[in-house]
Specification:
The complex is a heterotrimer. Chain A is about 75% helix and about 0% strand. Chain A is mostly helical. Chain A has one domain: MetI-like fold, CATH 1.10.3720.10. Chain B has a domain of about 180 residues: MetI-like fold (Orthogonal Bundle). The longest helix of chain B has about 35 residues. By secondary structure, chain B is mainly alpha-helical. The radius of gyration of chain B is 25 Å and the shape is flat. The two termini of chain B are about 30 Å apart. The model of chain B has no long low-confidence stretch (mean pLDDT about 80). Chain C folds into 2 domains: about 230 residues, 3-Layer(aba) Sandwich (Rossmann fold), CATH 3.40.50.300; about 120 residues, Beta Barrel (OB fold (Dihydrolipoamide Acetyltransferase, E2P)). The longest helix of chain C is centred in the middle third of the chain and has 18 residues. The chains are: A mainly alpha, B mainly alpha, C alpha+beta. Chains in contact: A-B, A-C, B-C. Chains A and B meet through helix 1, helix 4, helix 5, helix 6 and helix 9 of A and helix 1, helix 3, helix 4, helix 5 and helix 7 of B.
Chain lengths: ~300, ~300, ~350
């Protein structure tokens, strides 16, 4: 092993010192709570009732309970549809279309992309309110008036199609992220390859299917990972819109955790659900790594 | 690629038309909800649904600052998020530099740890975080009370962990650090060591090297990290909701939310104007952050 | 046979190709050469169909090709960066054009294997471009081109991405391939060495116009203008300003650099007054004291053993002399050079040759 001279040792120490504040903050406010959360999930801690006075270790009872809890499975199902509908399908397709359209040399590119970025710039709460205006209010809601223009009869959107609505809202919010990531991926494909394909006689469809799509796979997979994980974490916007209702129809798992912890005051149980969500996210991460290995 | 044959030219024209059409539809879809916020905020008789105002007025905006606590909300948001951003920039700047230049054994686990952290749903962290901050708060009160007696309450408003500026700033900073550290580390990775080595040969200490050589060079990265942190912290709703309860400390998202929850009829004009004020800094920051977005993502795609 | 008739191209209002006439015979290896920005790559892409032709005609084998899409011209192109599909294997890359036309897989296989054999790529058929060396990648690009059995193959600076040792090797390879395939080739490069060694015919381009076209040695011995004279041949031909004065059938040409010689001009082509005179470094001989027609001072001596390059003349107007063998001169030495008037080229002020060299 190489011997470090005094100078190098001092450098190493200095680097550690300037990293220390960040590490401390992260340890205290992120890592420790996460670990504590795991611990909590094995207790029956609560803010009222028996668990408040004398919280004790109860082993895997919380986990057994959630396996039997219909509302928990409902929240997983809702979250699944939410993620697939908005991130995997909605944002991805619209983002890809926008990315490819902007890749052609057309005018007003900046105006289009600025408008598409707007939803992402809006803070969660405001985004929630804007869509309340769009969706609530029966016949007068903006969406109602738009579909009436096409001859479809409006309904009380948030109560009739709650899950569909939040999928649309989240799609609206995330198109920009998909678009930017996919544009970055598209830009890594050298133009000359398309010219070579043109000389080989490929049509636009053939170029898309056999060149663009395969070369974009790493980017697409990365996008799927990032968007799936961050969509699972969506809370504020949906909470402001529906509070998880009606009747749990839009109770995402993040809202379920919130309700359990702060409304039902079942802290231990809420923590157990959170740990399950963490495991699911880690599984998605592993799935991504596997898929990338196959790809490359 | 130039179109040569008439067939190719026609195809290109068709493709361009399709591009314009789809982009228009998507852009309008994205922009529509904003119309209500803008129009209703200027509407003397605003409703929940979208309508052309029959009575244009700026009263709603005035109401925010005169009748309600809009000024306080805005001040709190600016103070909290501004301090967070500044703190993040300093810590991530230094930390990112250390992460880039160090070869220590803890480098790789630390980086993977950061990635893993970002996978946690925030709602999962809130409860343990509350307990931790509560105990820190109690400990702090126990220390301060003997010294300051009755004014402890007032001091804790600033230095407390629950219901105090210090706590919310530190927690928000911790939330933004993973991404900010990553951005700065990647940035410093791309910066050749020549500048620091030259400064080293000139005899500069680490503090001098940082202040006089690295900070000027790091400005683009700091700007990107700062903007992203600002936007994320500005929009954060869950953390203020959990940790701030006194009315004097409420930032904009909570003011907005509470205004909506009022028992008597909701004043939509007021709501829209408040939403617009809340919206504006985020959109402006986003405008600046645009050019950094592609760079950051492109780096991630390659790496 | 390929013909470009008065071809023009505009970028907006800027004319980049200004009326170009070029003919390439079947089986010829034609090289388009010129400095950056001369339009050689643009011309190549116009022939390929990747850029449009604004005026004039492109005729291939008797058919006007201006409006024909690139894949229907019977042309294949090897790009500068090779443009190989990174996610496909070598076999898939080569066979791509066939798979687009839904040729049965067994057929594609056979043709790919045939091509791979010619190019010695048989061992690499299942590799991806990322796992190949530069020379191998280039061969795959060539394979992708020749499998289409094109009547014309276009090369866009194919050797510029290779290191110099590999470049020499690939030059030989490409010439061998050309002989084997008996294909017509249009090859673009900025390197005049590649042009001189590989071409049957060279087209020198300058600022969107053809400066001269012909066989390599024709351009070397009989350049039509100063541009071609100084572009072809390395080191460059020395060209200096001089003044001419007729004295019967002989013209006395004198230059302030220290040059004075008599050129035989029976046909009276050189007018009195300012001219430019050029002589190649290899045509300047050292003369004894007081015996030469060019007296000058040495400023730099580069000894390579087999030959020596002397930089002479004023610092702002350096001239190069090439002598055989090792010459042990030093900077500051005054020397006498003898230039045979018959190997000089005389140009007018506009750069056109008015009296070419009489002897080679």
């Amino acid at each position: 092993m190489a011997v470090m001279n005094a100078h190098e040792a001092r450098m190493k120490r200095q680097l550690l010192v300037i990293l220390l504040p960040s590490m401390l903050l992260l340890l205290a406010f992120v890592v420790y709570p996460a670990i504590y959360s795991v611990y909590l999930s094995f207790t029956n801690e609560a803010l009222t009732g028996a668990g408040a006075l004398r919280p004790r270790f109860v082993g895997i009872r919380n986990y057994a309970r959630l396996l039997n809890d219909a509302k928990f499975w409902n929240s997983l199902l809702v979250t699944f549809f939410f993620v697939v509908g908005s991130a995997i399908i909605g944002q991805f397709v619209l983002g890809l279309v926008a990315a490819m359209a902007l890749g052609r040399s057309i005018k007003f590119g900046r105006i289009f992309s600025s408008m598409i970025l707007l939803p992402n710039a809006a803070p969660e709460v405001v985004a929630g309110f804007m869509w309340i205006s769009m969706l609530a209010g029966g016949d007068n809601a903006t969406l109602s008036r738009i579909v009436a223009f096409f001859g479809i009869s409006p309904s009380d959107w948030l109560n009739t199609f709650p899950l569909t609505m939040i999928i649309i809202v989240n799609t609206w919010r995330g198109i920009a992220t998909a678009m930017i990531l996919l544009m970055a991926g598209l830009s890594t494909i050298p133009k000359e390859i398309y010219e070579a394909a043109r000389m080989d006689g490929a049509t636009s469809t053939q170029m898309f299917r056999r060149i663009t799509l395969p070369l974009m796979m790493p980017t697409i997979l990365l996008y799927m990972l990032i968007s799936a994980v961050s969509t699972i974490a969506v809370f504020g916007m949906v909470y402001a819109l529906t509070r998880g209702g009606p009747g749990g129809a839009t109770e995402l798992v993040s809202i379920y955790i919130y309700n359990q912890s702060f409304t039902a005051y079942q802290l231990g149980y809420g923590a157990a659900v959170a740990v399950v969500v963490l495991l699911i996210s880690v599984l998605i991460g592993i799935g991504y790594v596997k898929a990338m290995k196959v790809e490359v | 690629m130039a179109a040569i044959s008439p067939v190719e030219s026609a195809n290109k024209a068709k493709g361009d038309l399709l591009a314009y059409a789809t982009l228009s539809i998507i852009s309008i879809f994205c922009a529509i909800p904003f119309f209500w916020v803008f129009l209703a905020s200027l509407d003397g008789n605003a409703q929940l649904f979208l309508r052309w105002p029959d009575q244009w007025t700026l009263d709603n905006y005035l109401k925010i600052f005169v009748q309600e606590d809009g000024g306080k909300w805005l001040f709190n948001s600016l103070l909290i998020v501004g301090s967070t951003t500044a703190l993040v920039m300093v810590l991530a700047g230094l930390g990112g530099y250390a992460l880039s230049r160090t070869t220590a054994w803890w480098k790789l686990p630390f980086l993977y740890g950061i990635l893993l952290i970002r996978v946690l749903p925030p709602t999962a962290l809130v409860v343990p975080l509350y307990k931790i901050l509560l105990s820190m708060n109690l400990a702090e009160a126990a220390v301060l009370r003997p010294i300051f007696g009755s004014s402890t309450r007032a001091i804790m408003k600033w230095t407390g962990f629950i219901d105090g500026y210090l706590g919310i700033i530190l927690v928000l900073t911790a939330m933004q650090l993973p991404l900010a550290l990553w951005i700065m580390k990647t940035f410093f990775d791309g910066l050749p060591r020549d500048y620091e080595e030259a400064a080293l040969m000139d005899g500069a200490t680490m503090v001098q090297r940082i202040r006089r050589v690295l900070v000027p060079l790091a400005l683009p990265g700091l700007a990107a990290a700062g903007l992203f942190s600002f936007i994320s912290a500005w929009g954060d709703f869950l953390l203020p909701l959990t940790f701030l309860s006194s009315p004097e400390l409420q930032p904009l998202p909570l003011g907005l939310f509470r205004a909506y929850l009022r028992v008597n009829t909701v004043d939509y004009g007021f709501l829209a104007a408040l939403a617009f004020i809340y919206l504006l800094p985020a959109v402006i920051a986003f405008g600046f952050a645009r050019k950094f977005l592609v760079q950051t993502f492109a780096g991630g795609v390659k790496g | 046979m390929i013909t470009l008739n008065n071809v023009r191209k505009f970028y907006g209002s800027l004319e980049v190709i200004k009326g170009v006439d070029i003919t390439v015979e079947d089986g010829e290896f034609a090289v388009f050469v010129g400095p950056s920005g001369c339009g050689k790559s643009t011309l190549l892409r116009m022939i390929a169909g990747l850029e449009g032709i604004d005026d004039g005609d492109l005729v291939l084998n008797g058919k006007r090709m201006n409006d024909v899409p690139p894949d229907q011209r019977g042309i294949a192109m090897v790009f500068q960066s090779y443009a190989l599909y990174p996610h496909m294997t070598v076999a898939e890359n080569i066979g791509f054009s066939l798979s687009l036309k839904k040729v049965p897989a067994a057929d594609i296989r056979k043709q790919v294997e045939g091509v791979a054999e010619i190019l010695q790529l048989t061992d690499y058929l299942n590799r991806r471009p990322g796992a190949l060396s530069g020379g191998q990648r280039q061969r795959v690009a060539i394979g992708r081109a020749i499998i289409k059995k094109p009547s014309l193959i276009l090369f866009d600076e194919p050797l510029s991405n290779l290191d110099s040792a590999l470049r020499v090797q690939m030059r030989a390879e490409l010439q061998r391939l050309h002989r084997e395939l008996k294909a017509t080739v249009v090859y673009v490069t900025h390197d005049q060495v590649e042009a001189m060694t590989m071409a049957d015919k060279i087209v020198v381009l300058n600022k969107g116009m053809v400066a001269q076209q012909g066989a390599p040695m024709e351009l070397y011995h009989k350049p039509a203008n100063e541009f071609v004279a100084t572009f072809i041949g390395s080191p460059k031909m020395n060209v200096v300003a001089a003044s001419a004065k007729r004295n019967g059938s002989v013209v006395r040409i004198e230059s302030p650099v220290g040059l004075g010689l008599d050129v035989t001009d029976e046909n009276g082509r050189i007018p009195d007054g300012p001219v430019r005179i050029g002589a190649r470094p290899e045509h300047m001989r050292l003369a004894g004291e007081g015996a030469g027609n060019f007296v000058t001072e040495v400023s730099l001596v580069e000894r390579l053993g087999v030959e020596t390059y002397l930089t002479v003349g004023r610092p702002d107007e350096p001239l190069i002399v090439r002598t055989e063998g090792d010459m042990m001169l030093r900077p500051g030495d005054r020397i006498s050079l003898n230039i045979d008037p018959d190997v000089c080229h005389v140009f007018n002020a506009a750069g056109d040759v008015i009296l070419p060299a009489r002897v080679s």
